[in-house]
Amino acid sequence: MSEQRRFGESDHEPLQQDDVLKQAISEWRDELPTRDLWAGISTRIESQPVTASRRVVFTLPQLALAATLLIAVASGLTWMIAHPPAAPNNNGPVIQAYGAPEEETQGKIVQANFADAQFNAAVTDLETILREERGRLDPRTVLIIERNLKAIDAAINEARMALNDDPANPYLNSHLADARRRKLDLLRTATTLASAGGD
Amino acid sequence: MGVLRNPQIVPTLHLFPSSKLVPVDDVVLATQGDTAAFERVYRAHMPRIFNLARRMAGPDAAEELTQDVFVRAWQKLALFRGESSFATWLHRLAVNVIIERFRTLGTARERFLADSEAVLDVAPAVRTKHMDLSMDLQAAIEQLPHGARQVFVLHDVEGYKHEEIGDMLGVSPGTSKSQLHRARQTLRGLLNKKVAARES
User: Fold this and answer.
1) Most Cβ neighbours (<10 Å): which of A20, A133, B75, B182?
2) Yes or no: is domain B10-103 CATH 1.10.1740.10?
3) Of A51, A52, A53, A33, which Cα lies nearest the Cα of A41?
């Protein structure tokens, strides 16, 4: 038999060469089915598409790496909660945007509304801080921030031009306020990141 | 020769192409649901699986069992992880399918040869020059209970160890050993009777 002993040596007393059984096994001919079996198989498997049920198996190093990453992330989050980032600039005011037209002072925090003058001042302050601190940010992060700021500025400009023609349009006013809020949020996030050293 | 009497009988050499002849890609494609690739896998491996089924279960059940094996293989393809060759994986799957078929048939007593069962010829028979031994063995093995037959085929033809056979059949390695011993004796007895009948 060509396939005999494929799985290792027998653990039983082997048949002797002069044993009629040994000879019979060696002469036991192979045969073929009397009909083509594929048609029946094909019919049966047609209704059983192979499912993507492959088991995902991780190697030990992969599991160790995943465990290490999990510990690192958990530790990082714990540290961040225990050590909140310091204010971006202790010498200057922290500008906090909100939608109401009022203005009030809470210690060093200056809340900006979205009237053009206050908005522009808040943006200018934040942009100044960001310019001074940007060296502490990853260049790729700076690139993303600048790209987003450009997109928001474009949206603000479009809304302003449209409002010139239709100043009372509630949608355009809401859109402009939303775009300004997003710009301030982005600038605040960027300055906070930069003040924290880009961590 | 049997080849002339039965056109279905062809030489082993032509029936068992090496599994290396089957591109691994076909197995991969089949795993992704490609039935044409799976048909190529079937064509390459069918002869060996069919003859395994024929020897373990008999010619009457072999064709249906072969189909069952390949349907099962299709269902389980996603679990083939390449830790062994595809041929080895398929062979083991086929053995399991065949054993499952007979597991529910009868009790252990009916499946195996009882200690008291007559052994026709204890002594090993001498080598004969007759060329019909293959047919004789086929006829003789049909007289063995399913369990004893499976132990004999798995051990003496397919090369499994008693430990593995015990696991597959759900019996102890000792039972596998004793069944092999008695199956050999019974088959020798039957073969010698056939040979003696032809020579007389």
Assistant:
1) A20
2) yes
3) A33
